[in-house]
Design brief:
The complex is a heterodimer of chains A (646) and B (688). Helix content of chain A is 52%, strand content 11%. Chain A is of the alpha/beta class. In chain A, the strands form 4 sheets. In chain A, strands 6-5-4-7-8-9 form a 6-stranded parallel β-sheet, sandwiched between helices. A 6-stranded parallel β-sheet of chain A has the order 13-12-11-14-15-16, with helices on both faces. Chain A has a two-stranded antiparallel ribbon with strand order 1-2. Chain A is globular, with a radius of gyration of 24 Å. Chain B has a 6-stranded parallel β-sheet with strand order 3-2-1-4-5-6. Chain B is globular. Classes of the chains: A alpha/beta (646), B alpha/beta (688). Chains A and B meet through helix 10, helix 25 and helix 26 of A and helix 1 and helix 8 of B.
Chain lengths: 646, 688
């Protein structure tokens, strides 16, 4: 390990560079923030009204509550669910923008987007209850789009979100209804939650948490429709081979980083780049090289095989290569400091969205009516920048790893169907029954410099694989594995346990791909956690049990964003044990912390656990998977004994 | 003080009541306030609420004001022990409401192996063993133990001591893993997860309502009853959380201590203690609750305890099988002289200075229980029909046939020390020898039967049975030769033997004294005794009628009788029969009307064998009044019922004139049948 807080060798080289030129990166800033304020860190700092900030001083008379009388549990609960509101707003607004564009496609209003995957459209239409029989594709698409947009617009509280009810099984839907967390409208749930947590509204921590879970389920709907409509517009991911890490940046090409989350822009940039190779060549480059950072990178990786440059914590370092000509960003998880880094180089930072601007950077307002033109303009800016590139400053780490990605649910089923045509998910269940694998773990979430960059992600992946856990991945977690060379067949040989290897042998034999399947199946961006939940629900349905009983765990080893809180919260509501690799700011209230880490299991089957130590976290996840298998086996044992006695 | 625990209790109560409110409000919104709510097969609605505040909960709408009241009165911020218990009480209400909502709309939410709500008939079935301390206490084990092996060992150890056990959460699966026998037949109830633990609590509260005769809503009395008479304690295994803390203080509110395997910063001595050593947890719990276990060390390799009484050994699981009509078998208890040693088989020879021949039969029946308490042993029937299996598991544990003798000698000597000075058990497996010796047994049986036939109520001395006063403080049973105790477990001879064993015990001889009403069966001395011992609540009892001052009931009666006015007769239903009956009530609902030492003319609890007695409601017209009984009860009584009918001059076909559930479950449905069959009740004088 380097002197820096990362396990990534390329990042280490770039941090040396940063040090050399005197750039203070996010790694330096993370150190500068220490020590953290204990009140804020444990969640008992309340900044909801202007009388505050208030904090809880348990032993001081009058200080054990906020000025308004809010106790620790009210403050912690409010703070926690406001994270969820922020996260759900982000995912859902992303989904809504795609739905808007999708509607305009169906109405024939935009020329640069089209229905790419008609099969997926038909499947989604059927799932959400849009009539398809004998109807025109565009008419179907329009109904799907309107239904999707209605998810945001709905204000009738008696309604239920379509993308929840139609994609969850009945036991979960009923659980959501009984516990009052089934949302009616996405925007309504978020507005309601902000109202609920306003000064002097809800003081009941359980009620606040349930309000938060409702918002979290809104997040699921927003994510799921974002996934579905993106697939229809841009195609559903199929297995693809590409590469990851800073070595994917090419000295001889015009390099453009696609950073952010929304594929509406990045996908068009990919299309435009294909047409503009010659312009790049005219400028003296051998072509245009696109690389991805964060989830918009995952979107174009899944569908187009665009390589991954790096993930959240190391985004500034892509600029440190000196070869990044433009970094085009949309929304979410974009550090304002990329502009600072760019000042040291020729790199153009281009913001594109009306709600996301950085002082001192280019802003090229993205316009869906002229999407292709916008994309080309951005690429030209990059080509111009390339001309100003200082070759002396170019220093690209020669580090990159092979990545096998592109595993949408459909792509996974295509493989499973080759083994079991009727019940593809049975392939996984059979492997669990046979004891080859202990269960399934989804590795998701962000980077968080409270720990060492990518360390938790990769250690947990290796530990789980060694213990025969089948791995799914999304988001920056997936990118961590890709960067570290874990997302390929070699990693299976190196890290998988014997049982998991056996299962892979069967899958590889059936898959018939030109490369071997990777150690973890990259299912996409953070909105594509919808795919992960579809996987879990399919497991439950195949096993004939509630979601709370399946051997399935989720880990966000370096959770950071509000979106991660939202995702974690709905995972718990769906019955998934959810590891978080940082201590959450819920520990300031025993009540709230007990509710989310223990009592949630009694109510929903899912629960959080906080464990910064990757080895301990892995051991706990393995225990949980084993416990679930054990419980199922014990129930079966009891029922079998009873059946035999009768 | 234990601020951490108190804070946990407060926050747990906040959490539990808040969750209950969310579920309740939602349920009312979806199903309407008028949606009925009740647990299956109980006369006590939602027992926690019935016992503590007495509101008549019929619909989910009724629950809202109750939950609001308990939230406003009991959720107390100030951290004191008293408030922690109030927070605990509120948590019990919350859990009861959350659980009851699972059962609305006739839902059957409990999936095997979890049992959920434990019905009244089961409660009543265990009434006798609870009061006679065969079941000396109750353990509620919650959570997940550190490992299955030591957890199972802890549970089995409590089972072997006869403790009734409620299991909640993963401890259930741990027991399944280690093949610990669970289920109501093993007095070990796997209630389920989370709030399902309330079914241990509502079971306990029903004991007070059913046996204690405490009226609904008498909170202080209900709690005192629990503290004084229900010897329960909680074992919390694995990590705690605020709701569990609150529930544990709910237990403390009822007088039940908690022992946990977790570290506790500040223990509350005798009430909340930590014991990480699994070998000691059970013992500490018993000590904290003041439960004394009579230890009988029996040198056999299997566990002996009432938990295994209900254990069935199927043929395929049997290592070896004896008797049951397919091979010759018999069991015999004989009194013998001080020097007699008879070389006979499965024969128990007893010498005791106070032993009487009359006790032989009583002791012989104990063979069944004593052997059946063995884990992996199965004994049914009696005398020369007795049938025994030794399970493969017992064989694997090293059980040998001679161990039967070890069990019998140990149990006889420990259970009946006053009348047994020496005991010898001879086990014979040689068929020829048995064929020879069985003649002695058959002779004995015949002599004994003749003696029993000659025993009538004309004797001067009856026996009281106050055994149930530990649970039903105002109830007095009086047992006569022709009317056994309503629990079915105490005959006149049993009571007599018991009095010899313990002259100051629950069975006291009562000279009948002056006869006040020969027809209805009322005697002055019996009245005086009953008045004094029912704490001046029952002034007079008629032995042979249910219409006027009938015998009271504790609550653990085997069967219950009720008048059917239209049919001019009576009906009887049993614990085993769960269905509706012509009086419009199930067994549980009927039982709820007349337990706890109350006299309810027209209704009476009884032991099933009383039906075949010549004195069966003699003053009301006797057996001829019986117009309805469940088929299962007819089958149980079998030839005895036919014989009784013949004896009463009703003819052998009388049994066919008694309606059962196949004929109907309302008076309207059975009356035409009775008329068609010309049931004699229709011709008797009007009952009322």
């Amino acid at each position: 390990m380097s002197e820096y807080n990362t396990i990534d060798v390329a990042a280490t080289q770039m941090l040396d560079k940063a040090k050399e030129i005197g750039f203070l990166s996010t790694f330096d800033r993370a150190k500068a923030q220490e020590p953290r304020c204990t009140f804020g860190n444990t969640g008992i700092c309340c900044r909801i009204c202007l009388q505050g900030p208030c904090r809880i001083l348990p032993k001081k008379p009058g200080g054990n509550k906020g000025i308004c009388g809010a106790r620790d549990y009210t403050i912690v609960a409010r703070n926690t669910v406001r994270y969820i509101a922020g996260g759900a707003a982000a995912h859902s607004d992303h989904g809504r923008e795609i739905a808007e564009t999708f509607l305009h496609v169906a109405e024939g209003k935009v020329k640069d987007y089209k229905i790419t995957d008609t099969n997926k459209l038909m499947q989604v239409a059927k799932n959400v209850g849009v009539e398809t029989e004998g109807r025109d594709v565009m008419a179907i698409a329009k109904d799907v789009a309107l239904l999707a947009l209605q998810e945001f617009a709905e204000v009738d509280e008696s309604k239920e979100l379509t993308w929840i009810t139609k994609y969850s099984n009945e036991t979960r839907n009923q659980k959501f209804r009984d516990t009052t967390i089934m949302p009616a409208g996405i925007n309504l749930s978020l507005a309601k939650l902000l109202h609920q947590t306003h000064i002097g509204v809800d003081a009941d921590p359980v009620n606040i948490i349930f309000g938060g879970l409702k918002a979290a389920l809104s997040d699921v709907a927003g994510e799921h429709l974002a996934t579905d409509l993106s697939d229809i517009l841009f195609g559903t991911g199929v297995p693809v081979v590409t590469e990851a890490n800073l070595g994917a940046i090419k000295a001889d090409k015009v390099n453009i980083a696609l950073h952010g989350h929304n594929p509406l822009l990045s996908q068009i940039v990919v299309n435009a780049a294909k047409e503009m190779q010659d312009e790049a060549k005219a400028a003296g480059a051998t072509g245009i090289n696109l690389v991805g950072i964060c989830c918009t990178g995952n979107e174009v990786l899944m569908r187009e095989g665009v390589p991954i440059a790096t993930n959240f914590a190391t985004q500034e370092l892509a600029i440190m290569t000196g070869a990044m000509d433009a970094m085009v960003v949309d929304v979410q998880c974009i550090m304002p400091s990329i502009r600072t880094a760019a000042e040291c180089y020729h790199t153009k930072i281009v913001t594109t969205m009306p709600i996301m601007k950085i002082p001192g950077s280019y802003h090229m307002a993205f316009d869906e009516l002229h999407a292709m033109d916008s994309a080309k303009e951005i690429i030209r800016l990059a080509i111009d920048a390339y001309k100003n590139r200082d070759a002396a400053k170019v220093c690209i780490p020669n580090i990159k790893n092979t990545v096998v990605a592109g595993f949408s649910m459909e792509a996974m089923y295509n493989i499973f169907r080759k083994i079991n045509p009727e019940n593809p998910m049975q392939v996984v269940i059979d492997a669990i029954k046979a004891g080859e694998i202990k269960g399934v773990a989804a590795l998701i979430g962000c980077n968080n410099l409270k720990g060492t960059h990518d360390q938790n992600h990769t250690v947990i992946a290796q530990e789980l694989a060694k213990n025969d856990v089948f791995l799914l991945a999304t988001g920056c977690s997936a990118q961590a594995h890709a960067l570290a060379g874990l997302m390929n067949g070699e990693a299976v040989k190196k890290y998988a346990g014997e049982g998991l290897k056996k299962f892979y042998a069967r899958l590889n034999a059936a898959a018939g791909l030109t490369v071997e399947l990777p150690l973890m199946f990259h299912m996409g961006s953070c909105v594509d956690n919808s795919r992960v939940q579809d996987f879990a629900t399919a497991m439950a349905n195949e096993m004939g049990v509630d979601n709370a009983d399946i051997p399935f765990v989720v880990s966000a080893p370096e959770a950071m964003s509000e979106k991660a809180v939202a995702i974690g919260a709905w995972n718990v509501a769906y019955g998934n044990p959810t590891h978080v690799g940082v201590i959450a700011p819920t520990v300031g209230s025993q009540l709230v912390n007990d509710v989310v880490t223990k009592i949630a299991e009694d109510v929903f089957g899912g629960f959080f656990f906080w464990e910064p130590d990757a080895n301990k976290a892995s051991a706990r996840m393995i225990d949980i998977l084993e416990e679930r298998n054990w419980k199922n086996a014990m129930r079966k044992k009891a029922r079998d004994a009873k059946a035999e006695a009768n | 003080m234990s601020m951490e625990l108190f804070k946990g209790a407060y926050e747990g109560a906040v959490t539990a009541t808040s969750y209950a409110e969310i579920l309740l409000t939602k349920a009312i919104k979806v199903h309407g306030a008028d949606c009925p709510v009740k647990y299956p097969d109980t006369a006590y609605r939602l027992p926690v609420i019935t016992a503590l505040s007495g509101e008549e909960v019929n619909t989910i709408g009724d629950l809202a004001p109750i939950l609001n009241r308990i939230r406003t009165t009991n959720i107390r911020e100030e951290l004191t022990l008293e408030n922690a218990k109030l927070n605990g009480e509120a948590t019990l209400y919350a859990a009861e409401i959350i659980e009851a909502l699972r059962y609305i709309k006739g839902a059957k939410p409990d999936v095997f192996p979890y049992c959920g709500f434990v019905t009244d008939p089961i409660l009543r079935k265990f009434g006798v063993p609870l009061v006679d301390q065969t079941i000396p206490g109750v353990a509620v084990i919650v959570g997940k133990g550190k490992d299955s092996k030591s957890t199972a060992k802890l549970v089995k150890e409590l089972q072997s001591k006869g403790i009734m056990i409620f299991l909640a959460n993963e401890v259930i699966e741990q027991c399944i893993e280690e093949n610990v026998k669970i289920g109501s037949e093993f007095i070990t109830f796997p209630v389920g997860n989370f709030t399902q633990v309330i079914h241990a609590v509502n079971f306990a509260f029903r004991a007070g309502l059913a046996f204690g005769g405490i009226p609904a809503g008498q909170r202080q009395r209900a709690i005192e009853y629990q503290a004084k008479r229900v010897f329960a304690f909680v074992i919390q295994l694995g990590p705690n959380d605020v709701v569990k803390f609150a529930a544990e203080f709910g237990a403390m509110f009822m007088g039940f201590p908690t022992v946990t395997d977790q570290p506790v910063a500040e223990e509350i001595p005798d009430w909340y203690q930590s014991e990480p050593d699994y070998e000691k947890i059970g013992k500490l719990g018993l000590e904290m609750r003041g439960i004394k276990i009579k230890i009988v060390d029996i040198p056999v390799p299997i566990t002996i305890g009432p938990a295994f009484e209900g254990e069935t050994i199927r043929k395929k699981d049997a290592a070896v099988e004896f008797g049951g009509g397919r091979s010759t078998s018999f069991e015999l208890v004989r009194m013998c002289g001080v020097d007699s040693v008879f070389p006979l088989a499965f024969m128990v020879d007893i010498y005791g200075r106070k032993m009487q021949e009359d006790f032989e039969g009583v002791l012989e029946r104990r063979i069944h229980y004593n052997l059946n308490y063995g884990e992996g042993l199965w004994h049914v029937a009696q005398r020369n029909m007795m049938w025994v299996r030794i399970g493969k598991n017992a064989k694997a544990a090293g059980f040998k046939i001679r161990d039967f003798g070890e069990i019998l000698i140990a149990k006889f000597k420990s259970d009946f020390p006053a009348i047994i000075d020496r005991a010898q058990v001879t086990i014979i497996t040689d068929k020829d020898v048995i064929e020879d010796k069985i003649k002695i047994a058959i002779d004995k049986y015949a002599t004994r039967d003749a003696r029993l036939k000659g025993l009538t109520d004309d004797v001067e001395t009856y026996y009281s049975c106050l055994l149930c006063q530990s649970f039903a403080p105002n109830h007095v049973c009086v047992v006569s030769p022709e009317r056994l105790g309503l629990c079915g477990a105490v005959s006149w001879l049993d009571a007599k033997a018991s009095n010899e064993i313990n002259p100051l015990g629950p069975n006291q001889p009562i000279e009948k004294g002056e006869c006040l009403d020969a027809e209805k069966g009322q005697w002055k001395n019996l009245n005086d005794f009953i008045y004094a011992n029912s704490h001046s609540t029952v002034e007079a009892v008629n032995f042979y009628t249910l219409m006027e001052s009938p015998m009271t009931s504790c609550g653990c009666f085997e069967a219950i009788m009720a008048i059917l006015p239209m049919c001019n007769g009576v009906m009887i239903t049993t614990r085993e029969h769960g269905g509706e009956t012509p009086c419009g009530m199930t067994f549980s609902a009927l039982a709820g009307t007349c337990g706890g030492g109350m006299q309810t003319p027209g209704f009476m609890g009884l032991g099933r064998r009383y039906i075949t007695s010549k004195k069966f409601i003699k003053a009301d017209g006797g057996l001829a009044r019986l117009v309805w009984m469940p088929k299962e009860l007819k089958e149980f009584l079998g030839q005895d019922l036919i014989d009784a009918a013949v004896e009463a001059g009703l003819g052998a076909d009388f049994v066919d004139k008694i309606a059962d559930e196949t004929v109907g479950i309302s008076e309207d449905e059975i009356l035409p049948f009775l008329e068609e069959k010309q049931h004699p009740a229709l011709k008797l004088d009007p009952m009322m």
